[in-house]
Amino acid sequence: KAGVTQTPRYLIKTRGQQVTLSCSPISGHRSVSWYQQTPGQGLQFLFEYFSETQRNKGNFPGRFSGRQFSNSRSEMNVSTLELGDSALYLCASSLAGGTGGHGYTFGSGTRLTVV
Amino acid sequence: SQQGEEDPQALSIQEGENATMNCSYKTSINNLQWYRQNSGRGLVHLILIRSNEREKHSGRLRVTLDTSKKSSSLLITASRAADTASYFCATDDNAGGTSYGKLTFGQGTILTVHP
After folding, report:
1. What DSSP string runs through B42-108?
2. Secondary structure class of A84 (helix, strand, coil)
3. Do the chains contact at A97 and B40, CB–CB below 8 Å?
């Protein structure tokens, strides 16, 4: 079956702009989580969506937001980009947002560079 | 925030040798998982161990969990050049009983296996 698809793979944006990243989970999975990975802070949880509802949120400013559609595809948006937002953004797919004995399936990520 | 420490930060070995990585965490957990990441790509789930388990095997992987010490170790036996990657432990926390879709990651160990 198809894996988790993240688009685009690479993005270059200018400070102050906004960006939207997309994640299509594995078919049948209803939970999508988002993570930011940077060399300094490592992997940090952004938020989780299940059935179009945000159920959990990490410690990120309000410039980071997301949504989920009825087909479980999710988007995250970052407004007013800052240089520090440069990172690899990963999404993870699961049946219901708990590991249930199985790990999460991650996408290949979107590499965002802010200049 | 990071859950804890992984050590060593970097490990360099020859093909055929065993590699051991350690992970410590801070809170009570539902389970602990190990992931591999190649060159800044997506994370690949390797193995999950529940909080009531002490040891688990999967192929060349062996994971131990000591909840009294809040620590885990990952052993890769008979390593191959293809095992070269970053390895992360991640905890599914039991903080307040609800942690939808959230894993808390360690800082990772960079493993290099020389042919």
Report:
1. -EEEEEEEETT-SEEEETTEEEEEETTTTEEEEEE-S--GGG-EEEEEEEEE-GGG--TT--EE---
2. helix
3. no
Q: Please confirm whether the linkage preceding A8 is cis (ω < 30° from 0).
A: yes
Mark which residues 54-83 of A lie under 8 Å from B by CB.
55-56, 58-59
pLDDT digits (tens, 9 = 90+) for B1-44: 445 688 899 999 999 999 999 999 998 888 999 999 998 789 99
**Parts of chain A with a pLDDT under 50:** none
**What's residue B3's pLDDT?**
58
pLDDT at A96: 76
A42-50/A53-57 β-pairing = antiparallel
Partner residue facing B41 (CB), from A44, A48, A108? A108
